[in-house]
Design goal:
heterodimer, A: mainly alpha, two-stranded antiparallel sheet, 2 strands, globular, B: alpha+beta, disordered C terminus
């Protein structure tokens, strides 16, 4: 081909492109014709600019992230340096007032899990503040333990503040209910991954209280959770919070962790009752041992059960796929449109809902919507199976964890469960002795006298 | 829990090495994920309504986490017709063309009507009273110039992880946009009206 025809082709292409760019603009200009032209005022009236409220200063984002870093940093100092419950409590109340009541509980690191999942799944934009609120508490927990939970989280703080007469949750119940956060986490991640919805935010019990407004169900749930929280320590943190589930896994890896006694443990058991969150583990010395071969068999059996549970629950998850799919608005819209579709139901009424009214107005073909929904259903079925597999894995690993014998010499705070509230420091007589400079025996005698 | 006087065994050394590796890997993974996600956006993102998609369903007034809603009606004066009979201000067939509450569409009386000159009246929105119900937007868009439209008030919005109005919006008109273009004024009348 010679050079000339190429130039012609290019020119033609450029003209086409230009036309494509200009024509829609012309059409728009036509639309902008007004029914009632703006008058030409003679009295000197000036047409005001559009009323727009001031844009909230970007500085607030920096202040929020800064406050989070400061709260975690101070918390770590109070827990590991000062070892002071009073200081931790003060910081906790400050966090509740700032992140909860002043900043209305948004953005929060728990909800940010979903933003990160949605970004990973659909490529949705992730605001840097949300990214920081997700990353900072997790990084902090990897190094400092769950200081965020104890001192900075407004949801934890509001429950901790109302705790009045804590009851001890039986260990089997604690373990069973403790599985729920992992399942909630899995479900939230899967639903956000497809951009279906944010269930953590939707069923957050406390933001309604922070804002002193909200849907009635949210306020009732929040109130009930607070009443429960008077008797059961931090029920949301222990049995619901999906971020707590992540922390329970990564916190045992942390560099710093709560040590109840500053010196040698004297095995007085006083800390056990001092912890309202069931985080204190007893020494293993006096434990009954079933015998090595038997223990080994149980461990092997539970390890073999893991793949069976994963596959079984994955199949269950696949079967539950249609239920999960209905939580997605596109699939729901397709169902609503199908009912009204005149091609399928000739005498159906249209525009029964706002969603369908908007759909019919948009001029999109229902077939395209059905096709999109069908594709989405298939991907959600995969996600639902993954969620089932995750459920099986969590249950299986909890069996494995229960059949491993652990060695503990002293009374310790379980690094995964402990939220670094610093209560146990107040119960430990050795800590008391360190602070006051008296002898441990003296303090023990005093404490016994009080009990008798 | 290892105490300072514990003997260093192969077991503790291995456990510590595994812990360090897990911490480094985990921290690296999180930093990478967060940097990747945040890198996609150069500016702070905020929730905003696209007025051309809005179908004035009224859910902005009821689904916001704030009460009253962070959504407010905005007047674009440059396309307003300054009509005496404003279809965004008056109910259909009002008893009189005056500011009586019984003649107004707005349930909270948030639109301030003032005489300018001759047959022309100006209409201002009182943001403290507006609840974002969009009744005036509907009236103005269907029968007038469409100078009223809804926007999320940046001064009030708390920038939730996910806007709860967006989750309920039947027209999918709410999305995150860069703060620089936070306010998209509506400049033209909808094509379907």
């Amino acid at each position: 081909m010679s050079a000339r025809p190429r130039v012609v082709v290019r020119l033609a292409a450029a003209c086409c492109l230009l036309a494509m760019l200009i024509l829609p603009r012309l059409a728009q200009a036509e639309q902008a014709q007004r029914r009632f032209p703006t008058p030409e005022f003679k009295s000197g009236y000036q047409i005001p600019p559009i009323q727009m409220s001031p844009v909230w200063s970007r500085a607030w984002n920096v202040i929020d992230v800064g406050a989070l870093v400061v709260a975690i940093g101070l918390g770590a100092w109070f827990v590991y340096g000062l070892r002071s419950r009073k200081a931790v409590f003060g910081l906790m109340v400050a966090s509740l007032l700032y992140f909860g009541f002043f900043r209305k509980g948004c953005v929060c690191p728990i909800g940010a899990i979903q933003n990160v999942a949605e970004t990973a799944g659909t490529g949705a934009a992730l605001p840097w503040v949300v990214a920081a609120f997700f990353g900072i508490p997790i990084l902090a927990t990897l190094f400092l333990g769950r200081v965020f939970c104890g001192a900075a989280c407004p949801l934890g703080a509001i429950q901790d503040a109302v705790l009045w007469k804590p009851v001890t949750v039986p260990s089997w119940l604690e373990k069973a209910l403790g599985l729920f956060p992992f399942l909630y986490l899995g479900l939230a991640v899967i639903l956000a991954w497809f951009g279906a919805q944010y269930i953590i935010c939707r069923y957050d019990p406390f933001v309604g209280l922070f804002r002193l407004s909200g849907p009635r169900t949210m306020l009732i749930l929040g109130g009930a959770m607070l009443v429960l929280g008077m008797f059961v320590g931090r029920p949301y943190c222990r049995f619901i919070c999906p971020l707590g589930a992540i922390f329970r896994v990564i916190s045992p890896l942390s560099w710093k962790r709560v040590t109840i006694t500053p010196r040698e443990c004297i095995d007085c058991r006083m800390c056990e009752n001092g912890c309202p969150f069931g985080a204190i583990r007893r020494p293993t010395a006096g434990q009954k041992i079933a015998g090595r071969p038997r223990e080994r068999n149980i461990l092997v059996a539970s390890m073999l059960a893991v793949p069976v549970l994963v596959i079984g629950f994955a199949l269950l998850g696949y079967a539950a796929g249609p239920v999960l799919a209905r939580l997605d608005w596109r699939i729901k819209l397709a169902e609503l449109v199908y009912v009204e579709d005149p091609a399928i139901h000739p005498d159906a009424k249209q525009n029964l809902t706002d969603e369908t009214e908007n759909f019919w107005k948009s001029g999109t073909s229902p077939q395209a919507l059905y096709k999109e929904a069908a594709e989405l259903r298939r991907t959600i079925a995969v996600g639902s199976s993954a969620f089932g597999g995750w459920t099986g894995l969590v249950i299986g690993l909890s069996f494995v964890g229960a059949s491993i014998r652990r060695y503990r010499r002293d009374w310790i705070a379980d690094a995964g469960t402990c939220v670094a509230c610093a209560r146990c420091y107040n119960t430990c007589p050795v800590e008391h002795a360190r602070r006051t400079g008296r002898s441990v025996d003296e303090i023990m005698a005093e404490k016994e006298a009080v009990h008798v | 829990m290892s105490q300072p006087n514990d003997p260093v065994t192969r077991r503790t050394v291995l456990a510590q090495a595994a812990r360090a590796a897990a911490v480094v890997a985990g921290a690296g993974g999180i930093v990478a994920l967060v940097v990747r996600g945040a890198g996609a956006t150069e500016d702070q993102l905020v929730w905003q309504i696209d007025p051309l998609k809005c179908m004035w369903c009224g859910k902005c007034a009821t689904n916001c986490v704030l009460d009253p809603s962070a959504v407010k009606c905005v007047q674009n004066y440059s396309i307003c017709g300054y009509c005496k009979l404003c279809t965004g201000f008056f109910i259909p067939q009002p008893a009189a063309l005056d500011e009586g509450a019984e003649n107004q569409l707005c349930p909270t009386g948030a639109i301030v009507r003032k005489h300018v000159e001759g047959e022309y009246y100006s209409y201002d929105i009182d943001n403290t009273k507006c609840i974002g119900c969009a009744r005036c937007v509907e009236g103005c868009t269907l029968y007038g110039n469409g100078s009223f439209f809804l926007q999320i008030d940046r001064d009030r919005c708390v920038n939730c992880n996910r806007c709860s109005i967006a989750a309920a919006c039947p027209a999918q008109a709410i999305s995150r946009i860069p703060l620089k273009q936070a306010y998209k004024p509506r400049l033209s009348v909808r094509s379907d009206s």
